[in-house]
């Protein structure tokens, strides 16, 4: 099980670093808007995941993982929005969406196993 969680954390880490890298060239007018929002949402995925596993009670852990999943969904929309605004190229968009899909499947599976 540790390998599974390590892989999931690694994917989340890759995702947030790519978001930070890819948003480096967003318009300066978006620094306090879209750039900030997409970075915070992406970082929230892994931070809530880590905090959830630092908790003792199962239902508290599950709550943090659900917040993590919600942040993933928010991030996916912001990636899509950024792509439509032509802030991401197609290759960047596809890479982020592919990572988000993989993270989503693994995270959802983890959430559903907690009773």
Characteristic key phrases:
0% strand; elongated; de novo design (two linked rop proteins); mainly alpha; 4 helices; 115 residues
Provide an overview of this structure.
The protein is mostly helical and 115 residues long. The chain has one domain (2-113): 23S rRNA-intervening sequence (de novo design (two linked rop proteins)), CATH 1.20.1440. Helices cover 80% and strands 0% of the residues. It contains four helices and no strands. α3 runs antiparallel to α4. The radius of gyration is 14 Å and the shape is elongated. The mean pLDDT is 96.
What's the structural blueprint in terms of helices and strands?
Blueprint: H1 2-22, H2 34-53, H3 58-84, H4 90-113
Short description:
By secondary structure, the protein is mainly alpha-helical.
- What coarse outline follows from CA principal-axis ratios? elongated
Number of DSSP strands?
Answer: 0
Fraction of residues in β-strands = under 5%
Q: What proportion of the residues is helical, as a percent range? A: over 70%
The main β sheet shows up as: none
């Amino acid at each position: 099980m540790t390998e599974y969680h390590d892989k999931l954390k690694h994917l989340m880490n890759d995702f947030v670093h790519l978001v930070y890298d890819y948003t480096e060239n967003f318009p300066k007018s978006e620094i306090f808007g879209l750039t900030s929002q997409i970075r915070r949402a992406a970082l929230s995925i892994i931070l809530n995941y880590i905090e959830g596993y630092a908790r003792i009670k199962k239902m508290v852990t599950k709550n943090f993982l659900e917040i993590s999943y919600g942040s993933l969904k928010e991030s996916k929309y912001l990636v899509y929005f950024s792509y439509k605004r032509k802030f991401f190229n197609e290759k960047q968009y596809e890479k982020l969406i592919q990572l988000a899909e993989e993270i989503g499947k693994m995270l959802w599976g983890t959430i559903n196993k907690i009773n």
